[in-house]
Amino acid sequence: MKNLVLGTIGIFVLGLMLMAGCKPKTLSSAVSGDAASKTYVPPGQYDEFYNFVSGGFSGQLSVYGLPSGRLFRVIPVFSVDPEKGWGYSEETKPMLNSSHGFIPWDDYHHPEMSQTNGEVDGRWVFGNANNTPRVARIDLKTFRTVEIIELPNSGGNHSSPFITPNTEYVIAGTRFSVPPDNSNTDVPIHTYKENFRSYISFISVDKETGHMDIKFQIECPGVNFDLSHAGKGPSDGWFFFSCYNTEQAYTLLEVNASQRDKDFVMAVNWKKAEEYLAAGKAKKVPVRYAVNRWDESTHSATSEFKTEVMVLKASELPDMCYMMPCPKSPHGCDVDPTGEYIVGSGKLAALVPVFSFSKMQKAIADKDFDGEYDGMPILKYESVLHGEVQKPGLGPLHTEFDGNGNAYTSFFVSSEVVKWRLSDLEVLDRVPTYYSIGHLCVPGGDSRKPFGKYMIAYNKITKDRYLPTGPELCQSAQLYDISGDKMQLILDFPTIGEPHYAQAAPAELIMKDQVKIFRIEDNNHPYATKGEKDARVVRDGKQVHVYMTSIRSHFAPDNIEGVRVGDEVYFHVTNLEQDWDVPHGFAIKGAPNGELLIMPGETCTLKWVPAKVGMYPMYCTDFCSALHQEMSGYVRVSPAGSNVPLKFHVGELAEEAADENM
Ligand code: RUQ
Ligand code: CUA
Known about the structure:
By secondary structure, the protein is mainly beta. Helix content is 10%, strand content 42%.
């Protein structure tokens, strides 16, 4: 026991030394002469690829161009975003609703693009909220988050969201085991083995609408699922999950979850699970979780709660889950484009094990087992192993593929990417990363048909690579050309938040269906104002609804009087523009709830409860025309109980208003 602990600590100390002490020797020659020409995208020209990069603790997804590394957009997903009004407008607030209430900030690790036939299809990007377990779907027609579904029975939604080859399912495996929601959760933590369980959620995705629904969950013993990937080709119908902490520790995991030489990659036959579900083998369990959907016809989100989920128990249903031993505390779990090889990456292992799907099938048929883990058969390591990549580097994390039979594995501790061949497991090339790489991405690199050409490293530490910015330095990505035999570093570019996984796809695939405007005729927002003549202000008790329009370069109405302290004022602003890229903004002094940014043809609402008597200027916050500064107005707020009549207008001067009173 003591030796094991010391051994484990030894590995960490070694790791820390390597992290802190060692600069790759090739630093000065890291970038060679033709790098600039390979990444230069002349002004006015488009990039070749889109790169969707998770922001980690920022909770958002950022969109870059490759090979330039230019940042195009940050798509708000799990965190409020003042730049887009996400989480501030009344319409977007329900998207961040959950069984724990409104959650303004979460942690996004893994973008995964939808696939058809195992190929990236450019429709949607999915994402995981790691802290309060949820899965999001982003529509690439609008670059907006259009759905967020919460996951019951889960804690730390890390092994997520990975998809099946026809996007039948988005899968989410829980990182932290917890007592099931419907059980007594008020139990001593040391009853982990007895009371804690881990769950995998199979979220179905509607082919047309994309709507997500939890079809079923699989209940497993209390372990930590870390990452996963679906089988493809011959292994389609299976899903593979890396799991660590098979020791079932609940304190000082650093040591206590690093005891066993091998943890597992769990193989799940999801077609079998579907059969069990159809045969009525699942239990209906009461839970409560939010399903939040954005509707682009009303430009509004709704949040509804679902109250049950179907649960299949892994230990009770044979032929559904198998454990493949995997050295040691595996992190990444990646399936090659042919679907034959499954790469496990033990963070503490000095080799990379590669499993063979056909050998796994044979081992299952031969019942070539090595005991069981809580009712699930353990397959013999040697029987399922294709082979081990020997001496690849230190601290393997993730692997992507180029479609030419090569794999690229990131090594956190030795700060490098190693290219190796799937067939004979020979190491072909290695390049340093600056520093401590986590994930990496090849465009389409986890699909059946990678696009290859580039590999991007997403690093945890940048140290001396960029101008210092106080105690926290920028996070970064590095772009490598992988079109030749040798990988070549061609660009560093900073990222928003901490990048984890990323996806990339050819620009034409994403550009083809872009929404440029929302047609005003199709606007079904209940408070839409489709023409300036319909602009008005309506009082309903304490509620004041402002039906406002914006068009270059004025609001209608832009003078409002008769609002009183304590009123609930709703500015429903419809942007009447029907041109691409002409948003208008809306801000009013003192509004504690931020601002709006309204796209052409869209309606967006800011709620404001004025707390003081005063004259409140409002204005457009997006520089929309030469007379943008003129796009402004006033709201007069009178005391509560005042009888100043409700008045509103635009373009009326004092002489015209003379016959009216105050
Ligand atoms: S993780 S650095 Cu949260 Cu995907 Cu591996
Ligand atoms: Cu509208 Cu500035």
